[in-house]
Amino acid sequence: MFQTFETAASPEQGPPRLAALRDAMAAAGLDAFLVPRADAHMGEYVATCDARLQWLTGFSGSAGFCAVTTQVVGIFIDGRYRVQVRSEVDLDHFTPVHWPETTLADWLIGQMPAGGVVGFDPWLHNIDEVRRLREKLDPAGIVLRPVPNLIDPLWADRPARPAAPIRVHPDSLAGESHADKRARLALAGTSAVLTLPDSICWLLNIRGSDIPRNPVVQAFAVLGPDGAVHLFTDAAADATVLAHLGDAVKLQAYDGLADCLAAAPVRFRLDPKSAPEALRLTIAARADDFATVDEGADPCILPKARKNDAEITGARAAQLRDGVAMVRFLSWLDCEAPKGGLTEIDVVKALEGFRRETNALQDISFETICGAGPNGAIVHYRVSEASNRPVRRNELLLIDSGGQYLDGTTDITRTVIVGTPSDLHRACYTRVLQGMIAISRARFPVGVAGCHLDALARYPLWTAGMDYDHGTGHGVGSYLSVHEGPAGLSRRSDMALEAGMILSNEPGYYREGAFGIRIENLIVVQDVPPLAGADDRKMLAFDTLTHVPLDRRLIDTGLLSDAEQHWIDRYHAATLQLIGPRVDGAAHDWLTAACAPL
């Protein structure tokens, strides 16, 4: 439970925690302080001990940050959270700011006078972020100052840093030994500093449980030019783990990285997009000239995204296993929901139960999103006892969920109707489906990025004056993070797609106060042979990994082209062929009907 202050705050100061933070700002000589949803590892997911943004504001979304000045607090959220933030924060004291439409730098310039000082914890902001802020703030006369974190001393009952035991991830599932990975990725003459837990776990073929729903170890690592690794973690490593890591991987205390950078006479590679500014400052503060910084990408990022044959085989097996659980669940839901009596929490528990019955589930891959009726319009909705809504007839139910299996990570969204859909339901659902099909069928030359393909998913919605305020797809790890960089399908994703990358394909449409629709499959990029009569340009395409029926009741065939109808029928035929032999009884009967041709 979070700390509660006993002293009341003045109306000008705001809630007690905010008032205490402003007192700390004044004592430090700051006119503003930045509170990101971040930790020192710069990943998307944070442990409870690093949930400072939620502690201060109440906002629980997976992305966002706030800037606290003496007069106002701007809480910056993207399109996924613009409904959610209004239900979680005190709007009398915290002002939602649409981001990235409004940048932090522009907002600060508008709020602060020249000479104002903005404090930030350099462990919670990456090098690139700080550099871009300085480029904007310096000409405006606003000072950006690194300071110790101001919230941590106020958070009296802050949870301890996680340090769960390390587990070995078998080479048979990884597809390559960590010795081979280390030798392949070592940089000549340079030691690469790794801060992303999923990069480190992928490199060393280890897993952990430090972050809920993500099988990672919270650690730092330095990959030397000889392939040796210094692993900085407080996680326990038993004899099996130590034997797996071998002599070339040296375990050191979690807090030892800064001392290493301050003393080792070597050239360090820091990724400006994932290394905290504190690491650059540590090296820059050295009194000698024996350590330098070479900025460049984390050497694990791209190889991790390019899944090898073993990882893709594992992903197919995991998707098939998960598909069976989903079919059994949807069959149950189709029978029980029309009777009445189900709530969102009942649905969430039932779905996890079906996944656990596979006897292979390690964990769910994120907190299940189950939004009935208007709750479906909250893009990253998380049901609670307070928000729990009945599943009612003639309403849409959006279910976004996934599983963590040793051989792969899954992520699937299905939107279903309970009862009878309206014409509006069917029209919106079909346009979302058309976008998903367009991505599924895309064929594109090498060098094309997600930003080039994103519009394919939106075009059917655009023609009806509709859109959605999130990306179309994200990368997915191999028994790692369900959100994995660097590639994606969005307007901002300029990384060229490569064979082996696994992505989500999830367009949507949301009508606030009424319903939400999202349809999501996982897809893998693959090389494809040239078409007859084509030139010799190398081409790529997507292969769909997820096989779970779509809700045929929500499809308006009058909006579909012949090619789209054929795609749906082929998809359902393949789903019946793959999943059918693995289910029986009522689930098999339901699957057969759900996969009938349009």
Describe this structure in a few short sentences:
With 598 residues, the chain is α+β, with helices and mostly antiparallel strands. The protein has 18 helices and 28 strands.
Q: Mind sketching the topology for me?
A:
Layout: H1 16-28, E1 32-36, H2 52-57, E2 65-69, E3 73-77, H3 84-88, E4 95-98, H4 104-111, E5 117-120, H5 127-137, E6 143-146, E7 167-168, H6 171-174, H7 178-185, E8 191-194, H8 197-204, E9 206-207, E10 220-223, E11 229-232, H9 239-245, E12 249-252, H10 257-263, E13 267-270, H11 277-284, E14 292-295, H12 301-305, H13 309-336, H14 344-356, E15 361-364, E16 369-372, E17 395-401, E18 403-405, E19 408-409, E20 412-418, H15 423-440, E21 443-445, H16 450-462, E22 473-475, E23 484-489, E24 502-505, E25 508-511, E26 515-518, E27 521-528, E28 539-544, H17 562-579, H18 585-594
Parallel strand pairs: 1-5, 3-4, 5-6, 8-13, 11-12, 13-14
Antiparallel strand pairs: 1-2, 2-3, 7-9, 8-10, 10-11, 15-18, 16-17, 17-20, 18-19, 21-28, 22-23, 24-27, 25-26, 27-28
What does this entry look like structurally?
The structure is a single chain. The chain contains 18 helices and 28 strands. The protein is of the alpha+beta class and 598 residues long. Helix 13 (309-336) packs across helix 18 (585-594) and helix 15 runs antiparallel to helix 16. The model is unreliable at 1-13 (pLDDT under 50).
